[in-house]
Here is the input.
Amino acid sequence: MGVTIKEIAKLAGVSPSTVSRALTDAHYVDLETAERVKTIAKQLGYRPNALARGLVQRKSMAIGLIIPEIENPFYSEIVSGVERIATQRGYGVVVISGHSANGEQEVRALLGRQVDGIIHAGVYRTDTALPNLRAEGVPVVLLGRKLPGFMSDCVVANDRDASVQLTTYLIQLGHTRIAYIFGKNVSSGSTEKLAGYKEALEAAGIPVHPELVEHGDLEFHGGHRAAQKLLALNPPPTAILAGNDFMALGAREAILEAGLRIPEDISLAGFDDILFSSMKGIELTTAAVPRSKMGQLGAELLIKKIEQPDAEQIEQIILEARIVRRNSCGPAR
Amino acid sequence: MGVTIKEIAKLAGVSPSTVSRALTDAHYVDLETAERVKTIAKQLGYRPNALARGLVQRKSMAIGLIIPEIENPFYSEIVSGVERIATQRGYGVVVISGHSANGEQEVRALLGRQVDGIIHAGVYRTDTALPNLRAEGVPVVLLGRKLPGFMSDCVVANDRDASVQLTTYLIQLGHTRIAYIFGKNVSSGSTEKLAGYKEALEAAGIPVHPELVEHGDLEFHGGHRAAQKLLALNPPPTAILAGNDFMALGAREAILEAGLRIPEDISLAGFDDILFSSMKGIELTTAAVPRSKMGQLGAELLIKKIEQPDAEQIEQIILEARIVRRNSCGPAR
DNA sequence: CTGTTAGCGCTTTCAT
DNA sequence: ATGAAAGCGCTAACAG
Here is the structure.
């Protein structure tokens, strides 16, 4: 077992309460005894028991982080950002990859662990857990998404605007038959991007063909499949915009497998700017979303909400995406 | 505040202990009262307080996971595997990306949170925390690495053998001037791979030129830099083996930037088989390490050690890597 | 089968 | 400035 405050108290010839005060330097303690206590604590290798402390203070100094899949660079960088800030501020991060239908399980698990707040970047069909969470008074920050009908603190990218920019760029290159690989209904980012795509098309007076919109499920293989379907169209699109780089990369595979060249035969663009999008031979045009930054801001916002529960106003931080033009887009044939 | 066991007890007309028993169904409880208690608990939305439970049981049902950088797909997939199994078994995962010099900080933070065990995939210059950990009696599983002079349960890939295979393959293709991009001294995997590289070379009667071994620090940019140096050699190598795919991909950039072709002018291989290594246009020959599997096995092993502290023997699980031949290696010119 | 008692390690009034 | 006492929510003997 670990060293307890009691043992230190005995050795220092003081009461446990004094040791507690000396170690947390909260209250008035004689400087000399405080020093003595600290020295003994260090000698003994004392480590405060976070469980005990959390129990009495009703504060675990832990935050929960819910994400759909950590293998996805988009999310792993978010985790990285969250983790950095949290650690820096003394909070632990309990990570849960969510796969339940509505997020209830994940939230319950986290709440059971008495986390002080939750950063929610999960994607669920119907998110029933969030409103309950609100009722419980647990601070929540939504990351990378908004939930329709649920006002909440959040950190999101300006997906719609990025989508408008990307689509407009494609139109300027002379494309009119532009396909869109949609992510998921449940992801607000996907919806926003689709809206941006349509908005840009309409602004240019180009009709929106439903057949040009395919589902890709945000995954590499989804993008692959979607592109295959799109290429089978008659006539096929001359440009494809995918809801994230993962799907774009999947689409890229399908395009190359079909013996087509990028961008000579078909233009391709995505969202996120993951590391591999910049690699030689890939060079995907995309919208760069500052993922790590999102995580950091999310953590900072959550901790602020935790430590200042009085502040009533909701904060929504919107990060602008930056369009990165590489070699995957060219003039329409 | 959440619902407590006391309130349930009052409503059910029984004592808190009975509630506790009914809910954890550990001991003999009248079936009828048990049902009544459970119903009330559900109605009230009772959620056991893990802090309180952990305090008395001296078991937090949480494990710590230390990794160098979660953005790296190698590690993020390990996290994924660990997380899956842990969640499945009722454990929470506290993730820490370690950046301290010796891992002390990370371990302290985790121990303070009373984790029941630690999965350690960190990479430190001098790892002073581990031996102390052993002394504390906290179960530890090393993941992807061994620590010299520290026998421990671990899950590792057979790096040396994979390296021998890869190097031998290159030799069979006619290469004799094979460069190696080394990872980090502190990573046992790196050392093992270097040893395998040398072993294969010597077995073929090819001298090992120190100038052909460069440090790449396990990072993309390190691989890039290392390859630049290697290409400046006179004569340059005809093949480059990198300690991981990240560095190999970095090297790939440098090679292409130098106007050379892969594999016509120079062959390239790596380790890990991350998703992007398989992509069209990249098609990197590599040794596939089952990362998610490693994480899963690591978690299973740790939980076993946690739940059966009596079992004294040390288990070392060694996973064979699978060589994946793609198009980045060709015959020597 | 169930209630009472005690206590996990720590913080926090309330006295002194 | 410090100690005594109480209690956070829960479980674990120990009686009964």
User: Anything to note?
Assistant: Residues 14-18, 21, 27-30, 33, 52, 54-58 of chain A lie near DNA strand D (CB under 10 Å from a C1'). Chain A touches chain B through 50 residues (CB under 8 Å). The domain at 159-289 of chain A is CATH 3.40.50.2300 (Rossmann fold). Residues 291-307 of chain A form the longest helix (17 residues).
